[in-house]
Amino acid sequence: MPPDLESLRLLVLVGELGSLGRAAGELGIAQPSASKRLSTLERHLGLVLVDRGRRGSVLTPAGVVVTERARRVLDEVAGLVEGARALRSAREAELRVAASMTVAEHLAPGWIAELRRTRPDLRVGLRVTNSETVVGLVRDGAVDLGFVEAPGPLPGLSSRKAAADRLALVVAPGHPWSRRRRPLTPAELAATPLVMRERGSGTRDTLDQALPDACAPALELGSTTAVRGAVVAGVAPAVLSALAVSVDLAEGRLVEVPVALDLRRVLRAVWPAGRRLVGPAAELLAVATRRGQSRA
C-alpha cells in the first residue's frame, strides 16, 4: 500500500524538528500514535527511516532520501488543493447566461442587477441570441443557464417558468387596422403578410404554432428591434412581445390591434436535464422567478 499523506507529513516534521514528540505535537496527535504511524510507514516501505535515541529522533540516510521525496509529494498535493480552490472560486465568481432577445433586452438586465447587489464581485456574461441557439448553447455546456421564449418540449433540458409574456399585433398609426375595434380573426391574420422574426426565434415559433397556415412573411428580420422599426416605417403589421413595444404603444408610434387569438406565452429558464442548479445560476433563477411572480 502507498503511504498515507499524514505519515509523510509526520516524517518531514521529524526531520525538521529532530524530535518525534515535537512532530506529534505539531500534528496534534499523541506521541505513541505518532510512533506507531512511523513504524507502519517504515514497515510498508521496508526501510528504517528514523533513528530514535535518548537525545531525539534523527533521520537515517534512507530517511533523508525518502523525506525529500515526501516533501515534493506534499508540495504537489498542496498545489493540487490550492489549484482546485482557485478553480472553485473562479467558478463561483463567473456566471455564463444566454437569453433570447426579448428576455435579454427587457428582463435579464434587471435580474442580473438585483443579483449583483448581493454579489458585487460576480462576473456575468450574457449572450443574446434566438431561443434555438440558446437551447444549443445550454446543451453543449457553453453556458450555465439559458432563458427562452420558445413553446413546446425541450428534450434533454430541465426548465422552469421564469416570467410570463404575451404577443401583441401592432401596426403603424396610419395603417387601416389602427382604427379597428372588432378583433381580427385568426383567418384574417393568417392571410396577411407580416413582418416576422427569423425561424428559430421564440416569437416566430409561438406565432407559427398559433397560425400554422399563415401566408409567407412580407419581410423576415433577425432582431426584434429591426421588426419594430419596419412596422413603425409602415412596411407591414407584426406580432411582437408586448414588453418590446410597450414604450412605442405608450408614445403613439405603434397601435395595438385586437385579435381573437390567445398569444400569451411562458418565458422559461433552461439547463441540462439531471443537473441540479447551484451557486450563481440557482440564485439568478430565484431572482427571475420572484420578479416574474411579482409581475403576474
Polypeptide structure, described:
This is LysR substrate-binding domain-containing protein. Residues 3-60 form the HTH lysR-type domain. It comes from Saccharothrix hoggarensis. InterPro entries: LysR_HTH_N, LysR_subst-bd, WH-like_DNA-bd_sf, WH_DNA-bd_sf. Helix content is 49%, strand content 21%. With 296 residues, it is of the alpha/beta class. The strands form three sheets. Strands 3, 4, 5, 6, 9, 10 and 11 form a seven-stranded mixed beta sheet that branches. β7, α9 (202-210) and β8 (219-221) form a beta-alpha-beta unit. The mean pLDDT is 91.
Quick overview:
This is LysR substrate-binding domain-containing protein. Belongs to the LysR transcriptional regulatory family. The chain has 296 residues and is an alpha/beta fold.
List the helices and strands and how they pair.
Layout: H1 5-17, H2 20-27, H3 31-45, E1 50-53, E2 56-59, H4 61-92, E3 94-100, H5 101-106, H6 108-118, E4 123-129, H7 131-139, E5 145-148, E6 157-171, H8 186-190, E7 195-197, H9 202-210, E8 219-221, H10 224-232, E9 238-241, H11 242-251, E10 255-257, E11 264-272, H12 279-295
Parallel strand pairs: 3-4, 3-5, 7-8
Antiparallel strand pairs: 1-2, 5-11, 6-9, 6-10, 6-11
Helix pairs in contact: 1-2, 1-3, 1-4, 2-3, 6-12
Protein name: LysR substrate-binding domain-containing protein
Pfam families: HTH_1, LysR_substrate
Keywords: DNA-binding, Transcription, Transcription regulation
